[in-house]
Amino acid sequence: MGKKALITGMTGQDGSYLAEYLLDLGYEVHGLVRRVALEDPQRRFTRIEHLLDKVTLHAASLESYPSIFNVISRNEFDECYHLAAQSFVAESFADGFSTMNTNINGTHYMLAALRELQPKCRFYFAGSSEMFGKVREVPQKETTAFHPRSPYGISKVAGFDLTRNYREAYGMFCASGILFNHESPRRGYEFVTRKITSAAARIKAGQQNELRLGNLEARRDWGHARDYVRAMHLMLQQDSPDDFVVASGESHSVGDFCELAFAEAGLDYREYVVQDDRFYRPAEVELLIGDASKAKSVLGWAPHYNFEALIKEMVSKDIATAGDSFVTASA
Ligand code: GDD
To answer: ω before 185 within 30° of 0 (cis)?
Structure first.
């Protein structure tokens, strides 16, 4: 009998790749999705359209403990991957209250319901390199102190601490991945990488004239989401629960990303990129670079994509679909 997994946030980038990966491994895959998504499948299920006849979806909201309790009381799961969150850092500055409510309470509800109903179910929490924020050391690893710089980062530190505390207080198998930025052709248009690759494609197709961005000097450690979901799965296959940094170990600036992405489309980014104050953040995380040695040695994890391969795949996909269902390029 294959294992049974529950994924929250299955309609997102990571959830869709993880669902594919687990299905390939023979898992029975369930997703927890909002009722509004179930009622609007054409718009909300674009990333999992091809999986809809292979997965089971349950309606629940991260804001409602009873709805989560209800799903977990009706099904037994071996593993739970808690990926759902308000994940856009800039939005967390615009509405810190809802980011904190969803991200902290949502994680707490999941943990509490599992403890009550299925304490043997293994739990994965999607931690973030945003927890390092104003970094205390370079590169960042599992022992680096946190100094979050946004309501989003703060909510992830709280989720990380909750997860660790359920592990220590109740003996549950709870693990956190501290994932650095991970991208793909399925990335939302509000995030800088997809904003850049989709703009390069649209400019090449004559559908857009310029790209307005904020801080081009910020540095991130970018990997491919397809590689990172394998690490999530590995974390729940260990003998004991632990926390792991997942990163490429390379740091590039937003400007570097623009240069390569535009070059991939045969363009010079300096002719099109305009700096715009609207896209600067009140507090910035200037530099992220992760040390994934522990994930490599303990989990045996290694990425297949490098920075160039990631950009190449994103740009070519956006060039192939330039103009299709494009909604939020200005985000
Ligand atoms: N989104 C966006 N839009 N970012 C911009 C822009 C712009 O126009 N211009 C410059 N940036 C800079 C941001 O200031 C930030 O320094 C960097 O580009 C990356 O921004 P995002 O792509 O929005 O990602 P993020 O690093 O804030 O957060 C992502 O990675 C985290 C892991 O470290 C998200 O996926 C988080 O959910 C995730 O936890």
So the answer is: no
Pocket around ligand 1 at a 6 A CB cut-off: 87, 89-90, 128-130, 180-181, 190-193, 195, 213-215, 218, 220, 254, 279, 281, 284
Identify the CA nearest to 113 among candidates 72, 76, 60. 72
How many angstroms is it from 70 CA to the middle of ligand 1?
35
In the predicted structure, residue 326 carries a pLDDT above the cut 80: no
Facing residues of 33 across strands? 59
- In whole angstroms, give the CA distance from residue 93 to residue 84: 19
Q: What's the CA angle centered on 314, arms 218 and 279, to 5 degrees?
A: 35
* β pairing state of 122-128 and 174-179: parallel
242-274 pLDDT, tens digit per residue, is: 999 999 999 999 999 999 999 999 999 999 999
Residue with tokens 């305009």: 274
pLDDT tens column, 161-205: 999 999 999 999 999 999 999 999 999 999 999 999 999 999 999
Q: Do 209 and 244 touch, CB atoms closer than 8 A?
A: no
Please choose, from the candidates 45, 75, 83, the residue with its C-alpha nearest in 3D space to the C-alpha of residue 182.
83
Ligand 1, closest atom to CA 190? 1
Residue 330: predicted pLDDT: 36
pTM > 0.85: yes or no: yes
Residues 6 or more apart in contact with residue 138 via CB below 8 angstroms: 287, 289
Kindly report the three-state secondary structure assignment for every residue of 110-154: HHHHHHHHCCCCEEEEEEEHHHCCCCCCCCECCCCCCCCCCHHHH
CB-side exposure of 89: number of CA atoms within 13 Å? 21
Distance CA 93, CA 64 (A): 23
The secondary structure of residue 278, as a DSSP letter, is: G
- Give the number of other Cβ atoms within 10 Å of residue 297's Cβ: 9
- Two structure tokens written together for 80: 């739970």
Amino acid identity for residue 320 in this structure: A
